[in-house]
């Protein structure tokens, strides 16, 4: 189950106040000069006014508010506590390999910067051309942007790293290049698209699905839930929620 973040209401992205609009801009994880508007503005119009020295890779762009980001940060702390509880159980159960996997994942997530993204396309051309209602900005927002990097970022029960992408290379081929931990799911891997949507993709030789990841996507090697106590069944979903909100 995905962590519940309030949905858009009346196609308006609600910020901290209901007067004017402002954007705090983050470029590849670093703050930039903010933008302020004297009146409410459509999201597509605001995006058209963003000027940076490099080209923006819109598929990874995200918009949020400080309040939404804080809620995801709080959820991140809850997930880290959940993982610590799992590590304690594994220690008592005499499963050192699982302890090592959990501690590795805890480190990966502790270093993860999160956003609290709204589930809306942050691309001026898509907003104007696709028939999607263009949200009205009211209040204070955070806009997270980055350039295009032809990389796939790997998380989970394996070594965390970025892999240069090869045109035409399938998700299974990237997965095959990884060394999986003992308690990793053996026949599926999770793909987190640039829009934050996640997919559990079959990758074993007998069930492989042909899927080519997009630049900027993430791969998560999840726990084999069958090897864990029932209370930890949601752990992969909780991790996926954080990865869907990772800062570009």
In short:
With 248 residues, the chain is an alpha/beta fold. The chain is built from six helices and eleven strands.
Describe the protein in words.
The protein is of the alpha/beta class and 248 residues long. The chain has helices at 43-48, 66-92, 96-110, 124-129, 171-176, 235-244; strands at 12-14, 21-27, 30-37, 41-42, 62-64, 136-145, 151-156, 161-164, 188-192, 198-202, 218-221. It folds into two domains: 12-67 and 116-145, Ubiquitin-like (UB roll); 72-114 and 149-244, Outer membrane lipoprotein wza fold like. 28% of the residues lie in helices and 23% in strands. The strands form two sheets. Strands 1, 2, 3, 4, 5 and 6 form a six-stranded mixed beta sheet that branches. A five-stranded mixed beta sheet has the order 8-7-11-9-10. The longest helix has 27 residues, at 66-92.
Low-confidence stretches: 1-12
Main beta-sheet annotation: 6 strands, mixed
CATH T-level topology of the largest domain = Outer membrane lipoprotein wza fold like
Give the CA-CA distance, first to last residue. 23 Å
CATH architecture of the largest domain: Roll
Tally of helical segments: 6
**Domain unit count:** 2
The number of strands is 11
Gyration radius, rounded:
19 Å
Order of helices and strands: EEEEHEHHHEEEHEEEH
Principal-axis shape: globular
The amount of beta strand, in percent, is 15-25%
Helix content: 25-40%
The named CATH superfamily of the largest domain: Outer membrane lipoprotein wza domain like
Counting helices, strands and paired strands, the structural category is alpha/beta
């Amino acid at each position: 189950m995905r962590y519940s973040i309030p949905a858009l209401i009346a196609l308006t992205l609600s910020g901290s106040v209901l007067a004017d609009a402002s954007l705090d801009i983050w470029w590849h994880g670093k703050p930039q000069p903010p933008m302020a508007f004297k009146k409410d503005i459509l999201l597509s119009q605001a995006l058209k006014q963003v000027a940076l020295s490099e080209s923006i890779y819109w598929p990874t762009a995200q918009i949020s508010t400080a309040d939404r980001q804080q809620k995801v940060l709080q959820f991140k702390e809850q997930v880290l506590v959940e993982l610590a509880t799992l590590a304690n159980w594994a220690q008592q159960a005499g499963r050192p390999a699982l302890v090592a996997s959990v501690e590795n994942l805890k480190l990966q997530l502790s270093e993860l910067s999160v956003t609290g993204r709204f589930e809306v396309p942050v691309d001026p051309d898509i907003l104007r051309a696709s028939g999607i209602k263009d949200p009205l900005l009211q209040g204070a927002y955070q806009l997270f942007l980055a350039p295009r990097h032809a990389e796939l970022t790997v998380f989970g029960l394996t070594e965390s790293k970025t892999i240069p992408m090869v045109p035409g290379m399938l998700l299974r081929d990237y997965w095959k290049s990884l060394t999986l931990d003992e308690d990793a799911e053996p026949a599926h891997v999770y793909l987190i698209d640039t829009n934050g949507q996640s997919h559990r993709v079959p990758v074993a030789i007998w069930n492989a699905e042909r899927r080519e990841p997009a630049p900027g996507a993430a791969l998560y090697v999840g726990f084999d839930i069958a090897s864990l106590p029932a209370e930890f069944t949601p752990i992969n979903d909780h991790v996926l929620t954080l990865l869907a909100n990772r800062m570009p």
